[in-house]
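Section 5: illustrative case.
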């Protein structure tokens, strides 16, 4: 999931369909784009170099 895509405020959450709800619980997700499938693995090739992405892959509280 990517919130504020392509902006300095961009935030990325990576998980599975099984875990993403736990990872993003309590987080305002608007506006968010949900990306599903193998294309998620291309993020490191497509990320603009001038944006420092904040990635959160762990459930809140861990």
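Designed sequence:
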């Amino acid at each position: 999931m990517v919130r504020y895509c392509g902006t300095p405020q961009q935030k990325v959450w990576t998980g599975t369909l099984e875990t993403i709800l736990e990872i993003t619980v309590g987080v305002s997700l608007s506006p968010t784009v949900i990306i599903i499938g193998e294309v998620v693995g291309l993020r490191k090739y497509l990320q603009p170099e001038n944006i420092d992405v904040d990635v959160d892959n762990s459930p809140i509280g861990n």
